[in-house]
Amino acid sequence: MAAAVTLSQPNLSHKSPIGRSGVLMLHGFGIKVRMQCGHLEIEDGVGSERRKIRLPRVGHGLKRLVCISEDGFTTLSALKWLAEVGVSFLMLNRNGKVVLVTGPTAPSDVRLRRAQALAPSNGVGLEISRALIEAKLEGQERVIRERLNDLAAAQVIATFREKLSVANTIEMVRMLEAHAAVSYFGAWRNVPVFWPKADLRQIPDHWRTVGSRHSPLSGSPRLAVTPVHAILNYCFALLESESRLALSALGLDPGLGVGLHTDTPNRDSLALDALEPVRPQIEAWLLDWITHEPLRRADFFETANGNCRLMARFCAKLSETAPTWGKLVAPWAEYIARSLWRTTHKPTRRDAPATRLTQHHRRQAKGRSTPRVSLPPRPPSICRGCGVSTKAGKSYCASCGVAVSREGLIEAAKLGRIKGHSPEALARQSEKQRKHAAAVKAWNASDKPPWLTKEVFLQQVQPRLAALTVPVISSVLGVSEPYAALIRSKKYLPHPRHWLALAKLADVFGKNAGA
User: Fold this and answer.
1) What is the predicted pLDDT for the residue at 9?
2) Helix/strand/coil for 472
C-alpha cells in the first residue's frame, strides 16, 4: 500500500563549517557541546546569530575545537568523542591566557620522565636552554634586520647571542635573553599601525603605533593596551596550547621545566621552554601583516581600565593559525625528548622516543626529506578607506578605489603631470559622473514602455540613429559628443533610461504605440 503522505525532510546543509585549517572556534553564551544520536552537537553564538552544528565521526575535518567563552557546558561523552577521533579541545581567554587544553597523549615512559626531572641539576637543562634561546635570538635578529632594517639593534642581539656559548648557568642564559628582548621590542615600539581612513577618528593615539611590550596595567605583557600586543598575546596562547599538546604526545610532562622557566603552580614551564624558538616566527608574520594591511577598529574594544581586547570574530580568524604554530613547535618538542633520552641509563636506539609529531624516522627510512611547514592563513584584506573586507591583494573596495583614483588625478593635474587635464576639467568630469550615477539610481524600469524591449531597440531604433547628427543625440541625452558618437555607430548600447528618448528621435515610438 502506497503512503498517503510524504514525510517532510529537515533542511540540513551538507556544507561543513570547518575550514581548511580544521579549527572551529566557539564564542557567545550558553555554549553546548554534547552528543546527540552518535553525532557531536555544538551550539554557540549570541541572540539571533546563534548556530547549531552537528558533526559525524567520519569526514568532519575537525582538528582543533577552540572555546573563548566561559558560559556553557561540555559533556563527558563529548570529550570522549573528541579524544577518539583525535581532536584537541582548547579553552582560552581573550587576554592570551590558556585555561584548558586536552588532546591525544602517549603512554608515559618513566625513564624519560625521570630524565626530565633531573635535567636542571645534571647540565642537560642548561644545554637545552642554550639551544632554545640561541634559536630564538637568531630569529629575532633576522626579524629586526630584514623586516625593520634596524642594523644597530640587530647587531646588539647578535652580540648577546654570541655570548650564549660561554653562559655556564641558567641565570646567565635568562639575563642574555632579557637584554636582547629590550633591544628587540625597543625596535618595535615606534612601528606605525595602519587603520582605514574611516576609523581614524575612533583610534586612540597610542593605538597608532605598536607601543611597548610591557603593559602599564600589569608591568608585563599581560593586559595589553595596544592592538598589536593583544594579537601577539592571543597567538602566543595558541602556541602555548600547541606546545602542551606536542609535549604530552611525546610522553613528557608539560609542567616540569628543564630550567629556563622556573616551576610555578600557575603555568606549564616546559611548554613555555619549548615554544621560545617559534616566537620570532609569529612576530615576523604579524609584522608583515601590520606593514601591508590595515587593522580594523571593529575587531577590537577597550575596557574601562584601558585593556585592549579582541572581538570574537577576530579571535576566530586568528585561531585558524593554530595548526601552523603546532607544526613549527613539533621539531623542538622532539629535540627536547631526544636530548633527555640520551641521559637515561643505557639508552638504546630501539627504545628512543618516537617522532610521532614530525614523522622524521619514517621519512628517513623512506628516503624522504622533511616536509615544508605551510604558511599561516593570509591576513584579511581590508579597504584602506572604509574598512570593509576586500578581495585578496586589493587595497581599496570599488567605491573607495574610484574616489582615490579621482583624487590622484586631480593631484597629478595640479602638479602638471597630466597634460590637458586641469583641476577644473577633472572637477567638471567628476560632477558629471555623479549626476549620471544619480540618474541611474533614480531610474525606474517601469517608466520604460513594455513594447520597448532590447530586441526592438537593437533592430528598429539603433539602425535609424545613423541618420541623426551627433550633436542632436548629445543634447537630447545630456551626454558628451564622443559618447553620443559611440551610440550612433552601434559600438555602445546606451542605458535603458535613454531608449525612449532615442526611439522618439528615430520616429519609432509612433509606429509602435499601439503594439
Assistant:
1) 43
2) helix
Judge whether 481 lies within some domain. Answer: yes
The long-range contacts involving 480-487, CB below 8 angstroms and separated by at least 24 positions, are: 487/462
Q: What is the pLDDT of residues 426-441, one digit of tens each?
A: 667 777 777 777 787 7
Torsion of CA 37, 81, 79, 16, to 10 degrees: -80
pLDDT digits 0-9 by tens, 64-85: 899 988 889 999 999 999 888 8
Give residue 173's domain range.
110-366
Dihedral (C-alpha) 281, 287, 289, 295: value to the nearest 10 degrees? 130
Distance of CA 330 to the CA centre of its chain: 22
291-295: long-range pairs with CB below 8 Å, 24+:
291/147, 291/191, 291/194, 292/379, 293/194, 293/379, 293/380, 293/381, 293/382, 294/194, 294/195, 294/196, 294/382, 294/384, 294/387, 295/193, 295/194, 295/195, 295/227, 295/382
Q: Which three cell numbers stand for residue 284?
A: 615576523
The last residue of one of the domains, among 321, 343, 366, is: 366
Nearest alpha carbon to residue 320 among 100, 64, 88: 64
Q: Which residues of 241-266 are buried (b: 16+ CB within 10 A; e: fewer)?
A: bbbbbbbbbbbbbbbbbbbbbeeeee
